[in-house]
Amino acid sequence: MIKRVLLLLFLGAPLACASDYYVDCNYGSNGNPGTSPQRAWRTLLQVGISSFQAGDTINLKRDCTWNEALTPPSSGSSGSLIKIDSYGNGQPPHLTGYLPIAAQWWSRVGATNVWSAVLYSATSGLANVVQCGIRGFYCLTQPPSQLQYVRFGTVWGIAQASQTALSQDRDFWYDATNFILYVYSASGNPATHYSTVAPMALSGKSVLTVTNASWLEIQHLKIDWFDGYGVQVQGASDHLWLANLAANSEVENGAVPLGFYVHPDGVPVDIHLYNTDANMNYAGYHFDGCDSGGCAFEIRNCRAYANRAYGIVDNVHGAVSYDYCQPGRMKLAEDRLVALEKNDLRRTVYDRIVIAGITFAITVAISTIVAWRSYMGLK
């Protein structure tokens, strides 16, 4: 056996080994190999179109912001996960739909109160396309197919059906063919008039999507300002560890957004959410599927505050185990609700027995002390 291994080494047979990849929103380049901080990639799109091997780690630069979605393209294996994590110092890597447009990117349309900004172009190097970051790259790597929400300062705008329909402050229209946002501003440049104009540029999308991928560990990401899903697990996905993630939308969009939407196919038995926040969504956590039973999900140390409907929607018939969660209001499948109500009843009875025992013990102790002091002649 030893001779065989040595022979393979001498013959130059390739041996698989784990690699580290790096993504830096400011100083990276997709022309780099991505294999060191000095030769990092720049975009999450580059991650999504690459292939990785079991044991690889994709490191996202801290203090970076991407107006992009992230879709891990490959699966790891048992004992050799593919990991997505952060590197460097500062705030966690930030994936967001919030795209503030500075004054320099707005152009007035004729002599009207309508202003326009070009959000995306497939042609690189254009001077009029909205740019981000220290080195001025295009903010968006993919064209938005729609824009449902635009925030003017702290107030949501009103979507209109055409450019000619823009007639009052905070009206907007998105030209999805040419990727141009038009807004009405009664008093000069919109960035000055409203202080901030920010479309939700990832409209209708999942920010982090795990599709048909398994044996992954993803952690230390901040996800916000989405009108669809913050984190979505779908398809034949299993053996996942999602940790130290925050998915806080702040966008009011009917029965979405959902902070974490977990609805894989088949019978997944090994999906874990640790130390996660899902605040200011329609529902913080939403579990679906598993109609045939046998699934297993774990959610530990979670917080779900200020969600418009529910902190947790559990439609997987008891497949989710909870530990140290603060979910606010919960919506459970009926069988799960009955089980939890029985547990709550048992817990209530138990708590009352314990409290009564403690009260009795304290009363006896006080009576004993009073009697002793009286016997000793003490006041």
Topology, number of strands: 26
Specify the number of helices.
4
Q: Which percent range describes the beta-strand content?
A: 25-35%
Task: Write down the overall mean pLDDT.
Answer: 90
**CATH architecture designation of the largest domain:** 3 Solenoid
SSE string, helices as H and strands as E: HEHEEEEEEEEEEEEEHEEEEEEEEEEEEH
- Main sheet attributes: strand count, strand direction, barrel closure: 10 strands, parallel
CATH homologous superfamily assignment of the largest domain: Single-stranded right-handed beta-helix, Pectin lyase-like
Instruction: Tell me, briefly, the overall form.
Output: globular
Could you name the CATH class of the largest domain?
Mainly Beta
Overview of this protein structure:
The chain is of the alpha/beta class and 379 residues long. The protein folds into 2 domains: 19-96 and 203-332, Pectate Lyase C-like; 103-199, no CATH class. The protein has 4 helices and 26 strands. The protein has helices at 2-10, 44-48, 190-193, 334-375; strands at 20-23, 57-61, 65-66, 82-87, 94-96, 107-108, 114-118, 131-132, 137-138, 150-152, 155-156, 158-159, 171-175, 180-184, 197-199, 206-211, 214-224, 229-234, 238-248, 258-262, 271-277, 283-287, 297-303, 310-314, 320-323, 330-332. Strands 1, 2, 3, 4, 5, 17, 19, 21, 23 and 25 form a 10-stranded parallel β-sheet that branches. A 6-stranded parallel β-sheet has the order 16-18-20-22-24-26. A 5-stranded mixed β-sheet has the order 6-7-14-13-12, with no helix packed on it. The chain is globular and about 100 Å long. Mean pLDDT is 90; it is low at 1-15 and 334-349.
